[in-house]
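This part of the workshop introduces the protein records we will be handling. An example says more than a description, so a record of this kind follows.
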Amino acid sequence: MELLRLVPVGPVVLSVIVLPAHVPAQAVAETEYRPGARAEYRIERRVETARDLGARFTAPQRAILEKLNRADAAHLHRQDSLVVPSAWYDDELQYSPFPLVYAADAHLPKLLVVDLPGQAFAAYEDGQLVRWGPVSSGRRAHPTPSGWFHLNWRSRGRHSTVNPEWYMEWYFNFDNARGLALHAYVLPGYPASRACIRLLARDAIWIHEWGDEWVLGRKGQILAQGTPLLIVGQYAFDAPPPWRSPEQLAHGIDVPQGRPPVTPGAHSGAP
């Protein structure tokens, strides 16, 4: 059990302190252990200017703030409030809202999970969390679909077919028929894309290098699928962002514990 204590500290800052109960570390199941849910945070209701944030926080600290607040550096100061950790760690996994172990899919060498309600992704290798980060999924008019997909093919960068002025770097397609992909682009702190999944540039580069493409035969048939991608849930557009909720900070993100089959050709977007 975890306890929450809300401490008003004036008109500018509301501190949200997540207090882990006194439970022996060995008593916490690995599949339920979310480091970020056992950290301490404060929520600052009045966000400073970009210059103030730059003077107050180091570059590594701002990188953590980007992940916790689902917003890139250019948009951090535009947020209504800011989630700030009470302690700073070099390992970004210490702030992960995802469990460190995903036992249900440990049989998969690689798995990418995108949680739409929490606007975050997690990358697993043999069931072990290796990276997490923020996303910006589809806006209300163009929601990102949920379900099982695969990473199909990648490109260093592509111009959008909707608007050629939109250039999408570190592009990794996951639905060929609908032209959906993970790629680097602006993260404003809320779902803003046209159904694609936006990433911070450093996360997009990492996934671009880490993920496996499909293997096609001469006639375009799929000989081997790319890295599995599980997109979970739907974003609640009419509710407050869950990553600023004390309850959500204390709980973290749940991953499905069933073992849905990753069948050849399912959501593959094959030509």
User: Anything to note?
Assistant: The longest strand covers residues 128-136.
